[in-house]
Design goal:
Oligomer: single chain
Largest sheet: 6 strands, antiparallel
Strand content: 25-35%
Radius of gyration: 15 Å
Shape: globular
Number of domains: 1
Helix content: 10-25%
Distance between the termini: 23 Å
Number of strands: 6
Order of helices and strands: EHEEHEEE
Number of helices: 2
Structural class: alpha+beta
Length: about 140
């Protein structure tokens, strides 16, 4: 069955004085993704970064998507790859949507807790899983 997977990652930066450092870092991470990946795939070709002053009103978004065959059966594997990517990037929120032929749209959201992590004036600390909150619309993981 056909499954569409799509979403956005909202970059950290907004009007922060280090936003171009964030932008360069995230572009590098996306460019280093593999061009082909084992199943379930998370590859460079799935991603695109919004660029241009008129398109970056309060920050950039990194959008992604793919049309795959029944990838929902490997959701936990794909989620693991996606979360590994999130640990390498600087972001505020991430939204993933699955649209399947039999369940409709199922949504997932990661939100950074800025009380636990933010960009300061020194070295930017790596993001850890305990810095974010995760929520899914249909309780797929329960």
């Amino acid at each position: 069955m056909t499954t569409f997977i799509y979403g956005v990652i909202e970059e950290y930066g907004l009007n922060h004085h280090r936003k171009y450092e964030v932008y360069d870092h995230n572009e590098k991470i996306i460019s280093e993704l593999p061009t082909s990946d084992s199943w379930p795939p998370l590859s460079k070709e799935m991603f695109s970064i919004t660029k241009g002053e008129i398109l970056e009103y309060s920050g950039r978004i990194i959008h992604f998507g793919a049309c795959l065959k029944s990838v929902e059966y490997e959701w936990l594997e794909w989620k693991g790859k996606f979360e590994s990517l999130l640990k390498e990037m600087y972001w505020l929120q991430a939204h993933v949507h699955f649209k399947t032929e039999y369940t409709g749209v199922v949504s997932f959201e990661w939100r950074m807790d800025l009380n636990k992590w933010s960009i300061g004036s020194g070295q930017i600390d790596p993001i850890k899983e305990e810095y974010w909150e995760f929520e899914d619309s249909d309780n797929w993981e329960r």
